[in-house]
Specification:
Chain A has 325 residues and is mostly helical. Helix content of chain A is 78%, strand content 0%. Chain A contains 13 helices and no strands. In chain A, helix 5 packs antiparallel against helix 6 and helix 11 runs parallel beside helix 12. In chain D, the strands form 7 sheets. In chain D, strands 16, 17, 18, 19, 20, 21 and 22 form a 7-stranded mixed beta sheet that branches. The chains are: A mainly alpha (325), B mainly alpha (321), C alpha/beta (329), D alpha+beta (573).
């Protein structure tokens, strides 16, 4: 199959699944108990006010009309306004998404690189003490309960040792001070990032390392490794040039898939560390019955993951000529 | 045809029939199973991490069973409603409360024990559901191929990459009150996709095996081929995936409870963490913060280790020589 | 004998084309012709051998005849019915008439089913009799394939049997529904030489006892010579020569048949025979799409061979060959 | 390939990532700049005063917008604020004339009668939720000149002064274009509410400086603030702080830690008891405990039996041990409620309402409830009090009509949302079962409770609470008036009583405060006796402030976080 056609098919598939998810979410939210207007328990809200508020959100219309409006707007690229913030959803997401991406790409790249380099080393030295101890560390890391380890890290590093800030992304005083230079600001963000980053790193490192280890061990059984040895290459050359390069391929595929899972964990991490990202916003929107925001935030995350997977698929096919679709 | 109608007169056959009735039916089959299992156990035994996981699992199972005892001793040990009349606030370990009490004077140990029960319940049933769905879909998709395969696998693609936890979060808000059983169903419905993929590829290779083709030539229906011929041959793989699925299910349940979207009527480990976090005792009550987290991490670790060891049993390729 | 002269299987112009999927980064889609315009007739009780090297399409023929695969073109009549049109109940009836024995006895039995389960399955599917009746038939079939006493084998799993025993079980499975026509796809090629003869003799014996017709697929001319009444030689999906066993072996017309024959070891070391080359050579530039399929290997090709594909021509009575040169001779 | 090189580069990266920030904390120790730093759990959602309905937005927005009248701290007496003197009310024509002080907006332009008229007209024209109800009965607003406004009322309304005239005022100049644009929009109200206020025009004590999303809001002292130097309740109005830095923490624990580390001087929310122990021992902090202006209650669906029966409701009231809930569940951080109006609202609170079962022991409660129920015709298969007068397990409670009492669900918020209410529900369940009432507490998500209670109105009983009741007691009328028994109404219990409706309507139309107080007292007594609600408790608002940094906090209902505190606090020496 031609590459362009492949991408086209997958893109259509993404669009179709997108609309399915949109419809599903729409239905889900509309059958949800408690609309955002009736959620407000304020002695000042008269029933008329509630009706007005519902009309404001378009909740007074019949369900199918709401759905059509929702679809129409979606196609037009209008994603509606958040019930809670009252401003366009896209603005809120625009504010929060960069923060999430910053945290995520850094954590995934760091943990994948660390996972690959450690997995490579321990597979090379399989059976050694190093191998077993690092494997156990990887296993524990892979099965740790994320919120718990996050709380522990807060407790130890932020509370006991007072090394890192507890939450948020910046130190307001520093940013308000006109004398603060850009380097200081960057360092400040980094300083805030260390804890959430370490949590995400701890959680993801194990998975990548275990995959790399088993993939590397498979690769080491291949004939071309024996050939490379026979050619008289140094061990290092064999490990780096022949084995590791091929073994890293499966890690690339998991990279795409693990994105979905890491976003789950990201929502928790962002909530615990009050990182102003999209995951936290989604959790918040869900508990506030803020349908439009939750809907679009979820769709956006789903789209990100779908597209990332497409990219990974294409990349993988490009890297490994044996793959067919 | 003629030949077969003579069975009443066939002496040898009658002898065989008599002999068969004397022997206990299909006894050989069970014997065979036992030998297979013993062989598998021998391989499993060699994996020290797997054994460790098994030991952990047994400990947790014991915890789950013990959980019925404390409420019998005194109603104040009831994990949800029992309150120690003398304790107003969270307290460290004492003689009456080995792990201390929570913010309204409930016994942490009995909560921890019940948590094991919930973890098993959620983990195993949800994983079973996911694997049952995944296996069926994988079998059907892999065997029938063509359009069915395309549709099912596209659905699986989407389901697989959906951020499950967030979706469950939304669902729980939608359903309003997420009981543990609802949760189990939802996890089952969201986690089948990866199983289906693996089972499908296995089915694709099994489908081309001559014994399947022989069955087709015998005139076996599609259902029969899928469930009689291919099914039993993918079951070990499904079982393997179930142990991994338990890990995910437990983690999802705990995370959900931690975020405050769990079943408000049950005490689970995630719920305990949520309480310690939300009531502001995180930094003051390590006796309360540590046990549930350790339990969640260890139980998932134990299932994961067992899964890995089973993987070695099932995929001989992975065995260390 | 007149009864036996009736044509059981009639294959007309059988064609099968596969389309190949390629890597997503390559542009074209490729087609491979597995079988092209094959015509075969098999009479009642006859053993017809289909001989060819691996990849020649002989197995595909067998699979199509047993309806494991759909042909791209052509017609297949078994007992006068076009099997391509069979559905539902009729297909079930067809399954009862046509059975198949596979090459690899290690793979053709479900490892999780006992011998009894395996052999009984066709009966269960065809809803033959009650359980007792079925068990009796299974028992009987095992006896026929010389697994004796059958009671000892019924509840064993395949891995507890030797290769020969397994193949016998496979034969029993094929026989238990009393088919008229059995497709044997290289039934002995995976077996040790010592066991081969036993299975072959069993198959021959069954023909005489039950009046079966076989399509016997093999790459081994020696085996075919031993088993078959008539032989068809297939090369790259095309039937190149077809005739009574003795005539075809004694007087091969097609260069490919000659080549195959030359590869059969001869007991007499001093006997000298012309050796044929099996490696392909590069084709001369001016070659047409419809050239003779054997052209790349043929030592004696003429200009016409490059231009058009030869038709099957009757060179002797009941002996056909598809070669421009053989007719000229 | 360069995997090895990549790894080496990666390690160098790790080094930078971990080590540099490690030493950074030395560099970034928060400097004590001028002004107070206030921590908040969440970020405001908007600076648009028409939309700001959530707690966090209001905390910031009310720094910029001031009303015509306000209430004195402590006494809650209404005092003129932007207005000069009290309104001149003519009963014959239902006309009120309000005079304004000479005050200025932050840009120096005067705040005039036109701004007041504009604000009122916008609320009336767009039917702005939450404010429209208090402006609906105004027939006419007119600016007589720059500093006099004439209001014509449809009828006398008690809430005219305490509600209508306490609405914030916005600047006409700034809002006119927004309103004009909104009028043309498809949904005018939506357009108005969605308007994003980037730079609010303040007439309050502070002016807006900067909002860094997700991190902080900075406001500074308004040099043009009209009230600076005024004497209120014996104190001189400041503000004495240069500005306020609002920081958002997202969770209470990080906020409390920030408080302890000195990142903030005050956390503007009630602190969970768990954190208090640490703070109470710290001399830098003072912990304030004040009444919350709210009520937590158990409400019944009085449309259907058995809760339609007053005797049954009262029996339930006797069974509930409010003191136990306060001591056990609230850890004594609150007080029992025997009224809808909290005792902190001294002027309107009627202390003389029935206190069902106060001081009773469990056995006495069961006996009392048993007697009430028996007198009302309820029967048992096995009564809770046996022949010897001992308390036993009751079974088979039947209503006077002979039917069994059906299983009754008490809806409560889940424990993670509010552990107090969930626990209280559980306790009530146990107590009711003591006389054989088959009650069970059902923790449900907030959305599903409101759905069942307010929309479907199919439920047995629920435990919820009202917060932010306000000082004016008009809510007492709306909670139990039969007119409010409708979709989204505030009387979801379905309580109907003609006498109460009349007296409630009368109270709403009484503009004389003393007379109105008498009516409100009567209403309180009556409704507590009737028990469609059983008020349970009101928790304290517990707050901690850095008294070593700022002094002069103004304690009031709902805690020290109020406008007066920000006017009065001074940096400590």
């Amino acid at each position: 199959m031609h590459l362009g056609k492949f991408i086209l098919i997958r893109a259509t598939q993404i669009v179709v699944s997108f609309f399915i998810i949109l419809t599903l979410l729409f239905v889900l939210f509309r059958v949800a108990p408690g609309d955002p207007a009736s959620m407000v328990i304020d002695p000042q809200m008269t029933p008329e006010d509630v009706e007005v508020t519902r009309a404001l959100f378009g909740l007074d219309k019949p369900l199918y009309q709401q759905y059509l409006i929702c679809l129409k707007n979606f196609v037009k690229g209008e994603f509606g306004s958040s019930f809670y913030y009252g401003k366009p959803v896209i603005e809120i997401i625009g504010e929060k998404l960069p923060n999430t991406i910053l945290l995520f790409t850094t954590s995934i790249i760091l943990s994948a690189l660390a996972g690959i380099s450690w997995g490579k080393v321990i597979a090379w030295r399989r059976g050694s003490l190093l191998d077993s101890s690092v494997t156990v560390i990887g296993l524990v890391s892979h099965t740790l309960f994320l919120p718990w380890i996050a709380l522990l890290m807060v407790w130890v590093f932020a509370y006991w040792m007072n090394l890192f800030p507890l939450s948020g992304m910046i130190t307001p005083e520093l940013w308000l001070n006109p004398e603060t230079g850009i380097t200081m600001k960057v360092l400040d963000v980094l300083h805030h990032m260390v804890l959430p980053l370490s949590v995400l790193f701890t959680i993801h490192f194990g998975g990548f390392m275990l995959i790399m280890r088993s993939s590397m061990m498979e690769t080491l059984k291949e004939d071309y490794i024996v050939t490379a040895r026979a050619k008289g290459l140094t061990e290092r050359q064999i490990r780096e040039r022949h084995a590791a390069k091929n073994a890293a391929l499966p890690v690339v595929t998991t990279l795409g898939l693990s994105l979905a899972f890491s976003i789950n964990g990201g929502a928790i991490t962002e909530t615990i560390f009050s990182w102003p990202g999209i995951g936290r916003e989604l959790v918040f929107a869900v508990s506030n019955n803020d349908y439009p925001l939750a809907q679009i935030a979820f769709l956006l995350i789903a789209a990100l993951v779908l597209v990332a997977n497409l990219v990974v698929d294409v990349l993988y096919a490009y890297l490994d000529p044996r793959i067919k679709y | 045809m003629q030949e077969y109608r003579e069975k009443e007169r066939d002496k040898e056959w009658l002898d065989y029939r008599k002999g068969r009735e004397v022997k206990t039916g299909l006894g050989g089959r069970w014997g065979r199973w036992a030998t297979t299992l013993r062989g598998h156990w021998d391989i499993f035994k060699r994996n020290r991490l797997g054994l460790f996981g098994l030991v952990l699992l047994i400990i947790f199972a014991a915890m789950a069973l013990t959980s019925y005892i404390p409420p019998l001793i005194d109603t104040m040990y009831d994990p949800m409603t029992g309150v120690d009349p003398d304790i107003l606030w969270t307290q460290g370990p004492t003689k009456a409360h080995w792990l201390g009490t929570d913010f309204i004077g409930r016994d942490i140990l009995s909560q921890l024990l019940v948590g094991a029960r919930i973890a098993f319940l959620v983990g195993i049933t949800a994983a079973f559901m996911a694997v049952a769905i995944g296996t069926s879909v994988g079998l059907i998709s892999g065997y029938l191929g063509k359009r069915v395969d395309m549709v099912l696998m596209r659905v699986a693609d989407i389901v697989m990459v959906l951020p499950g936890l967030l979706l469950i979060l939304i669902l729980s808000a939608v359903i309003g009150k997420l009981s543990v059983w609802n949760l189990v169903i939802i996890i089952g419905l969201l986690r089948w996709a990866s199983v289906a993929r693996v089972i499908r590829s296995q089915t694709l290779s099994l489908r081309e095996r001559p014994y399947v083709q022989a069955a087709i030539i015998s005139g076996a229906s599609k259902g029969r081929i899928i469930f009689r011929h291919i099914g039993p041959n993918v079951l070990p793989l499904s079982f393997l995936y179930m142990t991994f699925g338990v890990t995910t299910a437990i983690l999802v349940e705990a995370a959900l409870a931690f975020l405050g979207f769990g079943d408000p009527g049950t005490v689970s480990w995630g719920m305990m963490l949520q309480w310690v976090w939300k009531t502001g005792n995180m930094f003051r009550a390590p006796y309360w913060l540590l046990p549930p987290g350790i339990c969640i991490s260890l139980i998932t670790l134990s299932f994961y280790l067992i899964g890995r060891a089973l993987d070695e049993v099932i995929n001989p390729r992975l065995r260390q020589r | 004998m007149r009864e036996n002269d009736k044509i059981l299987v009639d294959v007309k112009g059988l064609t099968k084309i596969y389309s190949l999927k390629r890597n997503i980064f390559s542009r074209s889609r490729e087609f491979v012709t597995a079988v092209y315009d094959v015509n075969i007739r098999i009479k009642n009780g006859e053993i017809f051998g289909l001989v060819g090297e691996s990849g020649s399409g002989k197995t595909t023929c067998g699979r199509i005849l047993s309806r494991l695969e759909e042909p791209t073109g052509g017609q297949i009549f078994i007992k006068g019915v076009d099997i391509r049109l069979l559905k539902g109940q009729d297909l079930q009836g067809f399954r009862k008439n046509v059975q198949m024995i596979f090459q690899d006895p290690y793979e053709s039995l479900n490892p999780r089913m006992t011998v009894a389960d395996t052999v009984m399955e066709p009966l269960e599917v065809q809803r033959v009799g009650d359980y007792e009746e079925r068990e009796y038939r299974v028992w009987k079939a095992l006896k026929i394939v010389e697994l004796y006493p059958p009671g000892d084998y019924l509840f064993r799993f395949p891995h507890e049997l030797s290769g020969g025993q397994r193949q016998r079980v496979a034969v029993a499975r094929a026989l238990v529904v009393e088919p008229d026509f059995v497709i044997a796809d290289e039934p002995v090629s995976m077996l040790d030489a010592s066991i081969r003869a036993g299975i072959l003799n069993l198959l021959l014996d069954l023909r005489t006892r039950l009046g079966l017709a076989y399509l016997f697929i093999t790459h081994d001319l020696a085996v075919a010579r031993y088993m078959c009444d008539r032989i068809g030689v297939i090369f790259k999906g095309k039937l190149v020569e077809l005739g009574k066993t003795e005539r075809l072996i004694g007087n091969p017309h097609h260069p490919y048949t000659k080549a195959l024959l030359s590869a059969v070891p001869i007991p007499d070391p001093r006997a000298e025979r012309e050796r044929f080359r099996f490696e392909e050579r590069e084709l001369p530039e001016q070659t047409f799409d419809r050239s003779c399929v054997f052209l790349p290997r043929c030592a004696a090709s003429g200009r016409i061979c490059r231009k058009e594909s030869p038709e099957m021509v009757e060179v002797e009575e009941d002996h056909y060959s598809a070669c421009h040169l053989s007719t000229e001779m | 390939m360069g995997i090895g090189k990549m790894c080496r580069r990666f390690y160098r990266l790790c080094f930078i990532f971990i080590l540099v920030p490690l030493f950074l904390w030395v560099a970034i120790t928060p400097s004590h700049g001028a002004g107070i730093k206030i921590g908040m759990k969440d970020e405001p959602k908007t600076l648009n005063p028409f939309r700001a309905s959530d707690t966090w937005s209001r905390k910031v927005v009310t720094r910029f917008f001031e009303p015509l009248y306000t209430r004195e701290p402590k006494t809650h007496k209404i005092i003129p604020w932007l207005a000069e003197g009290y309104p001149e009310y003519d009963e014959a024509t239902n006309t009120a004339i309000v005079r304004l002080k000479r005050t200025k907006w932050e840009d120096g332009s005067p705040l005039t009668a036109h701004d007041v008229v504009f604000t009122g007209s916008v609320i009336r024209e767009f039917k702005v939720p939450r404010y429209y109800a208090r402006w609906r009965f105004i027939k006419e607003i007119e600016a007589l000149d720059d500093y006099r406004v004439k209001f014509v009322l449809e009828r006398p309304m008690a809430i005219f002064l305490p509600r209508t005239l306490m609405t914030f005022i916005v600047q006409k100049k700034k809002w006119e274009p927004v309103v004009t644009a909104a009028r043309k929009a498809e949904k005018p109200l939506r357009c108005l509410l969605a308007h994003e206020v980037k730079q609010p025009m303040s007439c309050g004590a502070f002016t807006f400086v900067k909002w860094a999303r997700g991190a902080y809001i900075r406001i500074e002292r308004n040099e043009n603030f009209f009230a600076t130097g005024m004497e209120i309740g014996g104190k001189k109005v400041g503000p004495y702080v240069d500005g306020v830095l609002f920081k958002f923490y997202g969770s209470m624990d990080s906020a409390i830690l920030a408080l302890k580390k000195g990142d903030i001087d005050y956390y503007w929310a009630s602190i969970q008891a768990g954190y208090l122990k640490d703070l109470e021992g710290d001399r830098r902090f003072k912990v304030f405990k004040n009444d919350k202006n709210g009520v937590y209650y158990l409400a019944f669906n009085v449309r259907k039996s058995p809760f339609s029966d007053k005797a049954f409701r009262q029996a339930v009231a006797y069974l509930i041990d409010k003191d136990f809930i306060v001591i056990r569940v609230l850890q004594n951080e609150g007080q029992r409620m025997d009224n809808i109006i909290p005792p902190g609202n001294g002027y309107w609170h009627n202390p003389d309402t029935p206190k069902f079962g106060q001081g009773m022991k469990r056995k006495e409660r069961i006996k009392k409830a048993y007697e009430i129920l028996k007198a009302a015709g309820y029967t048992w298969g096995k009564p809770p009090i046996n022949a010897k007068g001992k308390v036993v397990r009751a079974e088979g409670l039947k209503m006077p009509d002979g039917r069994e009492v059906p299983p009754l669900d008490i809806l409560t918020p889940p424990a993670d949302y509010d552990p107090h209410r969930a626990m209280a529900g559980m306790l009530v369940q146990q107590w009711l079962r003591g006389v054989g009432i088959p009650a069970s507490s059902k923790p449900s998500s907030f959305g599903s409770i409101t759905q069942q209670v307010k929309v479907k109105r199919k439920f047995d009983a629920f435990i919820l609470g009202w917060g932010r009741l306000g000082i004016d007691p008009d809510y007492l009328r709306t909670f139990f008036h039969s007119r409010e028994d409708r979709l989204y109404g505030r009387n979801p219990m379905g309580y109907h009583n003609g006498w109460y409706d009349n007296i409630a309507d009368e109270s709403a139309a009484t503009m004389d405060e003393t007379k109105r107080r008498e009516l409100i007292f009567k209403m309180q007594k009556f409704i507590v006796e009737e028990a469609p609600y059983i008020p349970l408790y009101v928790p304290y608002v517990v707050e901690a402030c850095r008294v070593d940094r700022f002094t002069g906090w103004n304690e009031d209902l709902d805690g020290v976080g109020n406008r007066w505190s920000l006017f009065f606090i001074k940096p400590a020496q």
